[in-house]
Amino acid sequence: MTTFQAEPVPGEPPPADSVSPRDSTLDAPTSVSRLNDTIRGFIERWGSVWVEGEITSWNVRGGNVFGRIKDLVTDSTISIRIWSSTRQRLPADLKVGDHVITCVKADYYPRSGDFTFAVSAMRHVGLGDQLERLERLRAQLKAEGLFDSARKKPLPFLPHLIGLITGERSDAEKDVHRNAELRWPQVRFRTQHAAVQGDRCVPETIAALKALDADPDVDVIVIARGGGDPQTLLGFSDERLLRAVAAASTPVVSAIGHENDHPLLDDVADLRASTPTDAAKRVVPDVSEQRALVAHLRSRLTGRLTQRVTHDIAQLEQLRSRPVLRAPDTLIDARAQQLWLQVSRGRDLIDRRIETGARRAAELRATLRALSPASTLARGYAIAHLGDGVIVRDAAQAPNGTTVVVTVAEGSFAARSQGPVAETGDAVSN
């Protein structure tokens, strides 16, 4: 591991509040806080350095990483801290035992006196430029949306035919078949063999993917490999393969490597399985679990139906126990008596109204008859009126020779006036 020592920056004075050995004595000791601040001031002036070593501890807490790196020759170690924001820029497959090159900057905490190194960059030794290219490709594909969960296609609940791309006579193929058949004995596979590393890996995998994707009977495609070191897994981070997987219309499951392996295919595929065995478990449901689920649901349904029927029977019995339902005629008889009384009262009221109306009509008829001109005419009076219908009210209206119509009780007749007569009743004649 590369080592370094603290050296003051030329031309830069120490901090004003720093303390040196000559500044503290037995009679005038300095404080712990001032000593820690002095140490921190010197450490902050060191800057960043690149070191080479092996990861011996890798603990993730709250998205941050706290670990240790050991020298490859001696047992010397340093404590490292990686903030979550920095971790996003580092290779995702870093783990204990990896040989790495790391850019670190010393950091000292005055409050606790702890000394650690903050990591700003880390890469595998031996991969170098390839890892950098992969990280750039990762960022590019992520920006294009190929990693977005919104574009991920859901897997069918029970695929009728599973397309499998794996190495010929590989353990991955056996694991997928064995675990899938244990979970669902009737499962069927259509397998396309392809090289899982080397120069043939990418073109053969793409050809197998296109063949299975074009088959309408294939419901899901699994790309499986039994792990390996980062160098052998580079084919599953090839841009050509990644774009072919993204363009496939059939859901694709990535089952490359073990839990710590993470090629870019895992991010582009519709589902990432940590191992081929895990892929079989994620793609095919467990028949025993489904039978248990059906039995549980049937039991719940039976219980709910029994509970509902029992509840409804109890309510019906409660309703039937009420007096009105035990003897429904009682309610009808009581209402019939009330109805009979109301009808009788109605009839009496109508009869009284009719009788009162008849009396009132007779009274009005008698009054009308008393006031009617016909009654007057019946007593011997007559009404004389001129030809134009004007009633003669004054003798002057009918001078001598005027023809008048005289209406009596029984009809009318014409008469000729001889003029006014004397008050004694004698007619005046010309």
TrEMBL record:
Give the Pfam families listed for this entry: Exonuc_VII_L, tRNA_anti_2
Protein transport in keyword set: no
Which key words tag this protein in UniProt? Answer: Cytoplasm, Exonuclease, Hydrolase, Nuclease
Q: Which reaction does it catalyse?
A: Exonucleolytic cleavage in either 5'- to 3'- or 3'- to 5'-direction to yield nucleoside 5'-phosphates
- Which ranges carry the OB-fold nucleic acid binding domain? 31-123
Q: What is its EC number?
A: 3.1.11.6
Query: Where is it located?
Result: Cytoplasm
Primary location recorded for the protein, binned into one broad class:
cytoplasm
Residue ranges constituting the Exonuclease VII large subunit C-terminal domain according to the UniProt record = 146-345
Superkingdom of the organism of origin: Bacteria
Show the InterPro entries listed in the entry. Exonuc_VII_L (IPR003753), Exonuc_VII_lsu_C (IPR020579), OB-fold_nuc-bd_dom (IPR025824)
- For region Disordered, the annotated ranges are 1-30
Q: Name one GO molecular function term.
A: exodeoxyribonuclease VII activity
* Complex and partners: Heterooligomer composed of large and small subunits.
The entry's family comment says:
Belongs to the XseA family.
Q: What does this protein do?
A: Bidirectionally degrades single-stranded DNA into large acid-insoluble oligonucleotides, which are then degraded further into small acid-soluble oligonucleotides.
Name of protein: Exodeoxyribonuclease 7 large subunit
Originating organism: Microbacterium fluvii
Q: What is the lineage of its organism?
A: Bacteria, Bacillati, Actinomycetota, Actinomycetes, Micrococcales
